[in-house]
Prior knowledge:
The complex is a heterodimer.
Chain A lengths: L4 E3 L8 E7 L3 H9 L7 E7 L6 E5 L2 E5 L1 H4 L2 E5 L3
Antiparallel strand pairs in A: 1-6, 2-3, 2-6, 3-4, 4-5
Chain B lengths: L4 H4 L18 E7 L5 H9 L3 E5 L6 E9 L2 E7 L11 H12 L4 E7 L3 H14 L3 E6 L1 H6 L2 E3 L1 H8 L3 E3 L8 H12 L13 H19 L5 H10 L3 H10 L7 H16 L4 H23 E3 L6 H10 L5 H44 L4 H39 L2 H14 L6 H10 L1 H7 L6 H10 L9 H12 L5 H32 L10 E3 L8 H36 L1 E2 L2 E2 H15 L4 H9 L7 H9 L11 H10 L4 H12 L5 H11 L2 H28 L4
Parallel strand pairs in B: 1-4, 1-5, 5-6, 6-8
Antiparallel strand pairs in B: 2-3, 3-4, 7-9, 11-12
Helix pairs in contact in B: 3-10, 4-12, 6-12, 8-9, 8-11, 14-15, 14-21, 15-22, 16-17, 17-18, 18-28, 19-29, 20-21, 20-26, 20-27, 23-24, 24-25, 27-29, 28-29
Amino acid sequence: MSANLIPLDKLPVGASGKVRHLTARGNARRRMLDLGMIYDTTIETLRKSPAGDPVAYQIRGAVIALRSEEASKIFIESIKQ
Amino acid sequence: MGLTKQSTSLGVLKGTTGVDIEASDEIIVALAGNPNTGKSTVFNSLTGLKQHTGNWPGKTVTRARGRYRYRDREYVLVDLPGTYSLLANSMEEQVAGEFICFGRPEATVVVTDATCLERNLNLVLQIMEITDRVVVCVNLMDEAARKGINIDLERLSALLGVPVVGTAARSGRGLSALKSAIEGVAFGRINTSPLKVGYGEMLEGAVKEVEERIGVLAGGRINARWTALRLLEGDSPFIRSIYRHLGFELEEDKDLRQKLADIREGFEGWGISSEEVRDGIVSAIVKTAEGIGRQVVGFNRKAHNQLDYKIDSILTSKTFGIPIMVLLLGVVFWITIQGANVPSDLLAEGLFWIEGRLFVLLDSIEAPAWVADILVAGVYRTLAWVVSVMLPPMAIFFPLFTLLEDLGYLPRVAFNLDHYFKKACAHGKQALTMCMGFGCNAAGVIACRIIDSPRERLIATITNNFVPCNGRFPMLIAMAVIFSAGSVGGVVDSLVATLVVLAAIVLGVGITLLVSRLLSKTILKGLPSSFTLELPPYRKPQVGRIIIRSVFDRTLFVLGRAVAVAAPAGLVIWVMANTSFGGVSLLAHGARLLDPFARFMGLDGYILMAFILGFPANEIVIPILIMSYTAGGTMVELDSLAEMRQLFVDNGWTWVTAACMMLFSLNHWPCGTTLWTIRKETQSWKWTWISLLVPTITGILLCIMAAQGARLLGIG
């Protein structure tokens, strides 16, 4: 894994990244792929919930909330603004 | 997802037989789509009131069917569960996929959301792999227009190779075009040539190798290409259903088995795992959808979702998110309490006027006095009470609640609260099932189906009763108004009452979380399952539709059930109150027996007796109590809450009694209907009993703590 990959839950609000790698397995992986999180998909962190977790992400035009457990299994390459 | 007649109706619980087709000249049409696309609006607009709801055979997945006529033909519309895909392992996806595969619908309509088309195309492409007879309905065109999103429907149709119809189902726009397209596809007048997703040289080569053999073996009963893909990815839940449908296993064939083994070996040789095959399949579909989306979707404004984001940044903000949520809930209750007073009084007046006439009528036909007593003082009076107490708050509460649901606010509630559910090792969507529980716990239990993981679904089911349902609200409100409000009058009173009710609800939520955690640590051990929650765009609510839907589907349904329970209960209670042994009525005997324990809990024997007799429906607890306190064994005509307060005070109530009564109404056994629903949903007596015991024990403990605490402190 290259050094500039970060798990999605470390992507700050307002920043975007491209999906590079999923570490989730089985059903959880399927669900993420079904939501369109395939290689190279752009994801933007939209906002945190009041307690800071879950976090809402913009994925292919939809707003999807993920808990940190799920987001930490999605590795992205941060896009420089 | 909502507390609609379809979802709460007991019909939901009855098993239905497979893909039953009543008459051969009916045209079966399947309705598929992602969640939140307005699929049910399309379903409702097409079928109107001609609907029938059941379960998919052997599954706790709701199946709605409805019919409509179009050009002298009878169409049966089967509403499939909302899914993002047909590839993952959820029960909903399996049900949807199996129906499209084996239910042999003449046409399948895929409802998509115009404001999020690309993601929706994922499912469209998957369905087009199974069947050629597809009509794509691009719904919410009005919302898309409002957001400055353009969709080139003609181009979409050309690219997909199937008819595409743009609709705004809420206002009925495009529905006749949709019916016409369905007709065209069903009768083969419109020739479709669905776009097939390309999976790259290697996978396509493999498909080609086995496709033909599968076609020969299955004899055209299933789509060979689709089956080939499922076999190649392996581990697909569909393989088992395909075999069940065919009656034999394709891999029994030596030739095919050999070919599949060779292909898999080949893949392994290239270092490609079966997981990568699956990833490749999904990625190809998503990329195809992306490519189509790029060609047909145009954005007039770059920031088309900006308004939604702005609203979200307030409604889910760190500082205001939860306070706003509590405030909104408070406003809903306050409007309900405040608004229900006058119509409640008017209804009571009217209904009790009728009661007088009924006595006169029975007297004139010379009915025996005891018959008149049973029918009027027993059955009718209980009914009148239930109607006048329940109807006005429900007629206000349900439309307000439906409004929040329609606006798209409820998923935000789940978003705001998920953290606490996670801490309780439960699922965030439990917040939604709890919201549903405010209307009716049986509906809340059914709503638990939206939670995928069995463990978390059970937690949500068992704890749903900690949210006070509509049948218990009048009780809570009455207690709050009677014993917490002073004599300041009017607005201040109802404000204080609202705060007390709100506190009761917050307590209920707290108990839910605590008990959920307790269950997670004991009998339902496990880690939280994966959590994804879509926050759909906010939508402009259709006020007319909300009123109709909430009054007919919810208010009248819940009221009808309460009335059906109240009438016989009124009879039984009247008999119990008027049959005496040794000069003491049955009711009083029971109450005396319960009295020592009840008093230890801060209640009295009559109150506990009323809760026990109120097992069929919580709505009748207060009527029973009043009936028991008034010597005659029938309810008195209590014109105002002040009189009710006086009656209770005369029977030795203090504010501690009222507080314990509130605590116990919040935490005791679920009503008969809810328990029956739990039994049906869990298919287990064990969990039904646990669902009964957990809240009951909690309630008894809380009441004892409150009563004994107050005693020790010397208050009350």
